[in-house]
Each structure stands twice: as C-alpha cells, then as structure tokens.
C-alpha cells in the first residue's frame, strides 16, 4: 500500500511526540511492506510566528490532498494574550471545520498492565472500555460570539447552537459503533437547563427509537456523568455527547488509564482524510525536557492505520507492542507514579522493538 500522511507537529511537546509516532509508522511500513510518504506542515502558534496564520492555506491544501493527518498539539503561554488577534487553537478548530470532521472518537482503553498508574482503585477501573463520540464541529465552540459594552458593563457571550442534522449524524454513528461493541449507548447532555440539550435529547431519542431500537439506550446529565465516570466507569460502553462536554469528560476519563499521555483520538467526517491526535495539549510545563509520553500519539497513529487506511493488522501490531512495553514495566514519568521512568525517545524505541507482522 502507498499512502500520503500529513504531519502537523504544532507547538510545545507536539514536535517531540510526532517525531516518535512517525518512527513507529515508518517501522510499520518496513515490517508490512507499505510505502508511507510523510509531509510536515505548520499549524498553531508556530504557524502564527512564521506565516501570521494558525492554519496557513498551504497546510489546509496539503491536508485535503492527503490520505490522513497526524497532529501533535497546538498552543502555549507564548500565544495566550487574550487580546491577540488570533490564537493557535483557532487553527485547530478551523481545520476540523474545513474538513468536516464532525465525529471525534476517543477510546478510553485500559491496559491491564497499567492499572498501577491510575489514581483510582483497581476494582473500580477493571473492565473499563468506553468509546466516547464527541461532536466536534458544532455546539458552543462554533456558536456566534460577541463582546460589547465597556467598563463594568462590558460583556461577552458565545451561543451553544445545535441543529437537528448535526445531532442525527453523530447519534447514528455512535449507535452503529455500539452495535459493534456491547450494544449500549449513553447520551450525555444538560437538558434540565440548556435549550440545545433539550433539542439534542429529543432528536437522539427519536433516532434511537426509529432506527436503533435493538441498542440499549439511556441518557445521563453531564454533571452526574462526571461523577459516574470515576465511580462506575465499567458500566459504560459508547457515550455520545456535544463538543464541550466531550472535551471535558474525556480529560477527566484520562485518569482511568492514569494519564492524558495515554489517550488517542480520531476525528472523522463523512468523506476525505481523517485527523488523528492525542487528546492532550502542548504540555508547555514539560516541553523540551524529553519526558513527554509519546504513547497517546503512537496509539493515534494506530487509529489512523485502522480508520483511514483499513490496515487493521498493522494497527493491532502497534497496540500489541504498546501493551508489551507496559507489561515490561516501562513507564514515562506521567505513568510512573514516582517510580523509575524513561524518556520520550526511549519509550518509542521500546515500542519499535516490539512491532511484528
Ligand atoms: N489538541 C490540541 O492541540 C490541544 C489539546 C488540549 C490543550 N491544548 C493547548 O495546550 C496548551 C496547554 O494546555 P493545558 O496545559 O491545559 O493541557 P495539556 O494537555 O497540554 O497538559 C495538561 C497536563 O498534562 C500533562 N501532559 C499532557 N500531555 C502529556 C504527555 N503526553 N506526557 C506527559 N504529560 C502530559 C502536562 O504536562 C500538564 O501537566 C493550551 O494552549 C491548550 O489550549 C491543545
Ligand atoms: C485546544 C482545544 C481547541 C481542543 C478542544 O477543546 O477541542 C483541545 O482541548 C482538544 O481536546 O482537542
Ligand atoms: Mg481538550
């Protein structure tokens, strides 16, 4: 197979972890006889610094032509001025919107070998296997925003907007995913307070009744979900929710496997290339120290192989290698819980050694 993969390293630890995921993909290419062509492009703060735009046209065009995109992270204190004209994060939001990547799959996969890394008790996290489907191109992230007034009367607003069509397509995708798993779908909203959540709940209920009556379906309010997630995580199978709730709940869920550095994601649309990235950010507090956990990005590369290139055996090979590394007790600092740890490159070296066809 030949495939062209665009790499968007971005900011902070982005370049460090993308370098390692690329080495893993190259090893997969050699092992399975594929030709992967990599092109790196600018996004985020570095793109603001070099081109004055967090998503330069050249980057967007290259992404459109590619088979898949692997992104590191964007943002950092250097670009945090609230009065700045643009922000690194705007580049990420725009690429998701431009490519129509409305479905963000965030698997919360437990590696049994890593149970010691979680701050939660083993009996709570055991058996946890959740697939979050976070709606990614709508909701409050993309609603109209405004600043007006001055002095103590100055105000800011941003609207949460969902259309029926946006809810239907993400719920359908989530319900189909549930059919291939434990056949359970939970929809998370704030319908006791928010109008868009009431629309979300009505549309989801109709889609489930009309098209997926075989799937066990329930709804949970987002505040309660934040609690259930760390109290009884193994009760959930597929969880579908809006853009902001999905963002927050999945960072919380990273404490099940033990670190943000363990969670990958896939952002998919109805056609065109998918975008794959860790769920974490640019981790400015550890950038440049060589200690970032590359496994979330390496697992995102596995999702890229599975979802964009239909290379399931190759994706399995990466996931198996990660499992073996963890079983061997090898840990980056974030999952070492004070014990011995290895750095970013050494962790990727250990994964590389274990990639087999
Ligand atoms: N997809 C993205 O590009 C993305 C996602 C989230 C945040 N951000 C941006 O990143 C910047 C920093 O945000 P933040 O600090 O709130 O969140 P963050 O996810 O970057 O970091 C939160 C904490 O987790 C740790 N961490 C994250 N990834 C890690 C890894 N791979 N290995 C070890 N530790 C890791 C960090 O060191 C930090 O202590 C902000 O500008 C934010 O907007 C970008
Ligand atoms: C950086 C930010 C725009 C982004 C989001 O909120 O979607 C991040 O937190 C994520 O989870 O990918
Ligand atoms: Mg986030």
UniProtKB/TrEMBL annotation:
Q: In which pathway does it act?
A: Amino-acid biosynthesis; L-leucine biosynthesis; L-leucine from 3-methyl-2-oxobutanoate: step 3/4
Q: Where does Mg(2+) bind?
A: 223, 247, 251
**Name recorded for this polypeptide:** 3-isopropylmalate dehydrogenase
What residues bind substrate, as annotated? 96, 106, 134, 223
**Broadest EC class?**
oxidoreductase
- List GO molecular-function terms, semicolon-separated: 3-isopropylmalate dehydrogenase activity; magnesium ion binding; NAD binding
Residues that bind NAD(+): 76-89, 281-293
What positions are marked as the site Important for catalysis?
Answer: 141, 190
Catalytic activity as recorded in UniProt: (2R,3S)-3-isopropylmalate + NAD(+) = 4-methyl-2-oxopentanoate + CO2 + NADH
């Amino acid at each position: 197979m030949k495939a062209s993969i665009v790499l968007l390293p971005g900011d902070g630890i982005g370049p460090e972890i993308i370098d390692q995921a690329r080495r893993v993909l190259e090893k997969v290419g050699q092992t399975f006889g594929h030709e992967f062509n990599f092109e790196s492009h600018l996004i985020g703060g570095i793109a603001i610094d070099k081109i004055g735009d967090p998503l330069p046209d050249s980057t967007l065009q290259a992404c459109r032509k590619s088979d898949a995109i692997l992104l590191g992270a964007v943002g950092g204190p250097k670009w945090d001025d609230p009065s700045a004209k643009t922000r690194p994060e705007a580049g990420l939001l725009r690429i998701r919107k431009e490519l129509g990547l409305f479905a963000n799959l965030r698997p919360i996969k437990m590696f049994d070998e890593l149970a010691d890394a979680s701050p939660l008790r083993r009996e709570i996290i055991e058996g946890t296997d959740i697939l979050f489907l976070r709606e990614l191109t709508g909701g409050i992230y993309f609603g109209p925003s405004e600043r007006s007034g001055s002095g103590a009367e100055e105000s800011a607003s941003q609207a949460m907007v969902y259309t029926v069509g946006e809810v239907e397509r993400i719920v359908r995708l989530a319900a189909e995913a549930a059919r291939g798993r434990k056949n359970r779908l939970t929809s998370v909203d704030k319908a006791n307070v928010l109008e868009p959540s009431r629309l979300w709940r009505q549309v989801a209920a109709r889609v489930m009744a009309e098209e997926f009556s075989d799937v066990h379906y329930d709804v949970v309010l987002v505040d309660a979900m934040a609690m259930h997630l760390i109290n009884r995580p193994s009760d959930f199978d597929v969880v579908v929710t809006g853009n902001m709730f999905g963002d927050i709940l999945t960072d919380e869920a990273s404490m099940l496997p033990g670190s943000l550095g363990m969670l990958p994601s896939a952002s998919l649309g109805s056609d065109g290339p998918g975008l794959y990235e860790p769920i974490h950010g640019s981790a400015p507090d550890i950038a440049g120290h060589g200690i970032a956990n590359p496994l979330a990005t390496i697992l995102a590369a596995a999702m890229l192989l599975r979802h964009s290139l239909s290379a399931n055996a190759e994706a399995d090979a990466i996931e198996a290698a990660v499992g073996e590394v963890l079983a061997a007790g090898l840990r980056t600092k974030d999952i070492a819980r004070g014990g011995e740890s290895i750095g970013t490159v050494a962790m990727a070296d250990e994964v590389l050694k274990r990639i087999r066809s």
